[in-house]
Amino acid sequence: MIAATSTCDSTNWFNFICSSIQSGDKSGLVGPLVEHLLAAVAIFVVLYLVGRLTRVLVLWAMRRGKADRQVRTLVRNLITVTTYVVAVISALVVYGVNVAVILTAAGVGTVAVGLAFQDLLRNVLAGIWLLLEQPFRLGDTITVLDQTGAVQNITLRTTTLRTGVGELAILPNLTVFTGIVINTTHYDTRRLTVGVRLPANVDLADLMRRARAAVEEVPGIEAKPAIVFEPTLDKEVPLLRCHFWIDQREQDPDAMTAAVAERLWDVVGAKAEDEPANTPPVHRRPRGRVPPRGD
């Protein structure tokens, strides 16, 4: 496994140390051993420093390019792991370990780890791909399967969401990677809907015209796409639904929904108050009198 030698290597950086030790060592083994050990440590330190310098430069460039924080974390971890692997293997080779033995051990170890942690590795690979592809970012509101919430963190193994009721949902990255993800905050504009109950015997065309004029006065509603009114029935109850768009980066969806609902309530309430005045009187039959029956 380790190449044994009893002579100093003239091409080694620490040949002078080996020669000094050899002059007082009768066995002739200590000098070459120290020489190779020092060379291995030196190559490890050099490659480690090169890796750290590379990591600093790459992260600096990514910060200049305003790369996502999660991607920077992923790149930093990958560079760190690669640095240690390359430095350790190079040090072993310089020390005298047979390269074939290293490759064989690495292959067997990879197969064993892959079989033992198959699901873990699949989630890690899915996490790496999610961090690189970025279908969503920290703070986005997404829906995966039956879970909806704001993205709190994306690690190599899991994606965590804060649900609307304040719960923490931890999803395996493989589930997120293979499932259908709905990102409701990806675009700047978002459609909201407000529904109000319609009074009976209402002039629907006039009501929709008045409702449109009232909703258009609400500040913050986007002109395009246009406001859409949709009369529907909900269990035989007539409803008027108003669909409108807002810039969710600048407007509060709850506040906009409340403002539109108040305008619609005012319009529907005013229309309901006008209806009795326009309704023709109903003639009731006096009590106690029975109309004569015809022959």
A few lines on this structure:
With 295 residues, the protein is of the alpha+beta class.
Q: Any overview of this molecule?
A:
The chain has about 300 residues and is an alpha+beta fold. It has three domains: about 15-115, Helix Hairpins (Orthogonal Bundle); about 130-185, SH3 type barrels; about 190-275, GMP Synthetase, Chain A, domain 3 (2-Layer Sandwich), CATH 3.30.300. It is about 50% helix and about 20% strand. Helix 7 packs antiparallel against helix 8 (about 255-280). The longest helix is centred in the N-terminal third of the chain and has 35 residues, at about 30-65. Mean pLDDT is about 80; it is low at about 280-285.
- How much β-strand is present in the residues? 15-25%
Helix percent reads 40-55%
Shape: elongated
The CATH architecture category of the largest domain equals Orthogonal Bundle
CATH class label of the largest domain = Mainly Alpha
Biggest sheet strand order reads 4-3-2-1-5
CATH topology of the largest domain: Helix Hairpins
Q: Determine the N-to-C terminus distance.
A: 126 Å
User: What's the number of helices?
Assistant: 8
Whole-number average pLDDT?
A: 80
How are the elements arranged and paired?
Blueprint: H1 15-22, H2 30-64, H3 69-95, H4 99-116, H5 118-133, E1 141-144, E2 147-154, E3 158-163, E4 168-172, H6 173-178, E5 181-183, E6 189-197, H7 204-216, E7 228-234, E8 237-247, H8 253-278
Antiparallel strand pairs: 1-2, 1-5, 2-3, 3-4, 6-8, 7-8
Features:
295 residues, alpha+beta, Helix Hairpins, SH3 type barrels, GMP Synthetase, Chain A, domain 3, 3 domains, five-stranded antiparallel beta sheet, three-stranded antiparallel beta sheet, 8 strands
